[in-house]
């Protein structure tokens, strides 16, 4: 199901769902596709989730619901796969029953990150983080015998609380060797063998064999190329030049990108992407072999823009504390208490740190109980004044904060 955000008739949006005897209020429609809509919901306990509601099937099939449910139930337990909390039937006021999935609520998609890139490309830290997470998710999926078959930026979402990217939307997924869907993948991310299979199916002809997990590697290669270039490549991959020699086009994109990147990581990323874009699926390797690429052995620090784009439970406040405050113990303790009092207005604060020495000297790190609280705090604190200074707020990786590792972020 292609869930696409956009304006839809709000009158058609459900007001609530009753899930296992508990009322979940609908806060927003997150996306709508041909067969289902996705909503952000919250319960009386202030917990949040997503509901994927499948359209009532007048033919009595409910195929999409049963398909995605069965795949998700079979592949639960991996950190890079969206969590399925449960399934239920919703009975609306018109007497229509619909089948629903109650899912983990995720955050920003790679598609949204690409829009925010402004044609400049993302940092090596973000590309590496995303590539590793997707590959680990695919490696697990492929070990379980499944092909995702619709990998694209919109189907890769950031988990603010787990601090990783996760795969969603398994409506076209199938067991390798038992393909039950003829038309797979989305235009722009479709592997050559899937293009051929779709063309044969449209002509009423049967393909010799089904597609394999290699189609997912092809899609990932396009996604990473888009993240590096900062541009959508739909028209590029439709071009004859791409079909004749896509490796040469990849080389052109890398040589023409005017971003200043260290040369060696760029070569490793380019070679990793090219290894995923062989026209022969047998030459693409696997997700597991891709994970041992030299590209993943290079440590990167995030750009400050990365820490604004990817929510976490930890907030970092800049331009707040002067050096003179750090070395006066009484003033320092007063500032700690003032900052705690202010930050607790927006959510439950678990810890607060103001380092006295570099790295992180004078920065304020606030750990909230969840990412929802830190997002609200960032929204309300950014641009505020504290002791006459304008506050600059970003998120900060929870794992790094817990280890006491304070990045010297690239500005």
Automatic annotation (TrEMBL):
Native species: Denticeps clupeoides (denticle herring)
GO MF terms held by the record: ATP binding; protein serine/threonine kinase activity; ribonucleoprotein complex binding; RNA binding
Subcellular location: Nucleus
Enzyme's top EC category: transferase
Primary location class: nucleus
SUPFAM superfamilies per UniProt: Protein kinase-like (PK-like), RNA-binding domain, RBD
Gene Ontology annotations of biological process type: positive regulation of translational initiation; regulation of protein export from nucleus
The protein's name: Serine/threonine-protein kinase Kist
């Amino acid at each position: 199901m292609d869930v696409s955000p956009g304006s839809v008739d709000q009158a058609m949006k459900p007001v609530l769902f009753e899930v296992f005897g508990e009322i979940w209020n609908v806060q927003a429609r997150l996306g709508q596709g041909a067969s289902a809509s996705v909503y952000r919901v919250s319960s009386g306990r202030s917990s949040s989730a997503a509901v994927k509601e499948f359209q009532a099937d007048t033919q009595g099939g409910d195929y999409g619901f049963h398909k995605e449910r069965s795949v998700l139930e079979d592949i639960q337990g991996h950190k890079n796969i969206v969590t399925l909390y449960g399934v239920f039937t919703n009975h609306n006021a018109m007497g229509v029953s619909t089948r629903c999935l109650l899912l983990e609520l995720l955050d920003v998609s790679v598609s949204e990150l690409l829009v925010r890139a402004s044609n400049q490309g993302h940092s090596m830290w973000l590309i590496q983080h995303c590539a590793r997470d997707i590959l680990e998710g695919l490696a697990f999926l492929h070990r379980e015998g499944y092909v995702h078959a619709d990998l694209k930026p919109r189907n890769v979402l950031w988990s603010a609380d787990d601090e990783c990217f996760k795969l969603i939307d398994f409506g076209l997924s199938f067991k390798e060797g038992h393909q039950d869907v003829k038309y797979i993948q989305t235009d722009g991310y479709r592997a050559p063998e899937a293009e051929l299979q779709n063309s044969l199916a449209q002509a009423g002809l049967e393909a010799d064999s089904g597609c394999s997990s290699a189609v997912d590697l092809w899609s990932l290669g396009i996604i990473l190329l888009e993240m590096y270039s900062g541009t959508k490549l739909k028209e590029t991959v439709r071009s004859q030049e791409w079909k004749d020699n896509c490796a040469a086009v990849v080389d052109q994109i890398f040589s023409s990108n005017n971003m200043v990147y260290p040369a060696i990581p760029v070569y490793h990323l380019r070679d990793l992407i090219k290894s995923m874009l062989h026209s022969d699926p047998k030459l693409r390797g696997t997700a597991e072999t891709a994970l041992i690429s030299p590209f993943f052995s290079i440590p990167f620090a995030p750009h400050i823009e990365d820490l604004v784009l990817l929510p976490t439970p930890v907030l970092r406040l800049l331009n707040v504390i002067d050096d003179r405050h750090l070395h006066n113990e009484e003033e320092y303790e007063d500032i700690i208490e003032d900052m705690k009092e202010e930050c607790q207005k927006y959510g439950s604060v678990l810890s607060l740190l103001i380092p006295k020495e570099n790295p992180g000297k004078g920065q304020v790190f606030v750990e909230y109980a969840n990412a929802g609280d830190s997002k609200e705090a960032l929204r309300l604190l950014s641009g505020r004044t504290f002791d006459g200074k304008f506050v600059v707020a970003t998120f900060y990786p929870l794992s790094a904060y817990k280890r006491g590792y304070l990045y010297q972020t690239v500005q």
